[in-house]
Amino acid sequence: MASSSDTAGQQHPLGIYYQIWILLFVVSAASYAVDYFDVQGAMRWTLVIVFMLVKAGFIIAIFMHAFWERLALVLTILGPPGVLLILIAFMAVEGDYTTEARFDYMGHDRDAVALTPAEVHGTGGEHGEEEAH
Amino acid sequence: MSEAAATSMAPSDGVTGLVDDWAADKQTYHVPWGKAMMWIFLVSDTFIFTCFLTGYLNVRMTTTQPWPPQSEIFALSFGGAPIPLILIAIMTFVLITSSGTMALAVNYGYRRDKFRTIVFICATAFFGATFVGMQAYEWSKLILEEGVRPWGNPFGAPQFGSVFFMVTGFHGLHVSAGVIYLLWVARRIWAGYYDKKGFEIVEIAGLYWHFVDLVWVFIFAFFYLL
Q1: Which of A69, A72, B80, B152 is the one with CA 20 to 30 A from B107?
Q2: Are A99 and A41 within 8 A, CB to CB?
Q3: A69, A96, A118 - which closes a domain
Q4: pLDDT band at residue B80 under the 50/70/90 scheme
């Protein structure tokens, strides 16, 4: 199967790739369904992030073979990015402070609502007044 | 499974193996050097994309203007009523398909089935190019029809445009580079360059490709869905 030069290769049965492939399709369809059926609030966040982590986990573990790699390599891959969670936490705390300060002390409108494409373009959703921007 | 594939220099697994690998005063990673370097490149790329997404988190939290409704902005109509986010969903499926064909190419590479390897690499490159093409359509629709700019848009927070062009642009650049890389690898396989060297190159190119798919998983969730 392998010559002496490529004995370190990752060789696995094809079946597992097909299974993960199908799984990724199903989970992607599920996360699209969250948007399609307009799930909102905490449920939306939970579902989207769980589906995201499931997909990311299987891509790294199976498609990128991290599951079969030695621990020294796996920790090199996953350890440093783990530190980024601290950056994310810090920026979230800082962002929360900034936005509250803007609402509380700088008079920004807490209840502003975004426009939809239909509202921007007129009722039919047809384009027409984008020149204004 | 085929753990025997690890080199004879790497006897034990798990934490003992970890200590051995680091403490043995010799090569730490028992993989081809090209693969180790690709992994290290991907770790650094993870930092770049995470910094982009963290910047996105920060501007999205701190902007007091409402965030534009992604679901409706990225809707597409096939004759009837617009279907929300359908273009992005199709792009996601195209990229997952390409990841699957890439996994098959890696597998056939190690089986030394050159013909199937090249076919599946080219299929992967084709799906990658399709993805970039759809992204070009998405960009031109957003710029020309919706009037979204990096500094503003008609819907709400101007940061929407900055984040969109920055993050999807950088990701699209990775996909485009990946397509070129894959075609280059396929050509070298065709020319017999790896017949003696071995086919780790397919796995190394595959790592890059799966990483691009992986980044899209996060962009899809954080930028388009949340």
Answers
A1: A72
A2: no
A3: A69
A4: confident
pTM for the predicted model, two decimal places:
0.88
A45 vs chain B: nearest CA distance in angstroms?
Answer: 7
A42 touching B, CB under 8 A? no
ipTM above 0.95, yes or no: no
- Examine the domain organization and report whether A63 and A107 are in the same domain: no
Residues 94-113 of B with CB under 8 A from A: 96, 99-100, 102-104, 106-107, 110-112
> Do A133 and A84 lie in a common domain?
yes
Nearest-CA neighbor of B77 among A126, A101, A87, A50? A126
- Across the interface, whether the CB atoms of A75 and B18 are under 8 A apart is answered yes
Q: Which fold has domain B32-225?
A: Four Helix Bundle (Hemerythrin (Met), subunit A) (1.20.120)
Structure tokens at A89: 């936490």
Whole-number Å distance between alpha carbons of B99 and A70: 23
Give yes or no: residues A94 and A48 share one domain: no
Provide the domain count of chain A.
2
Instruction: For residue B120, give Cα distances in angstroms to A88, B86, B115, B182, B204.
Output: 38, 27, 9, 10, 15
B76, β-bridge pairs:
B83
pLDDT number for residue A127: 46
- In terms of residue numbers, what domain contains A36? 9-69
Q: From A79, A53, A77, select the one nearest A67 (Cα to Cα).
A: A77
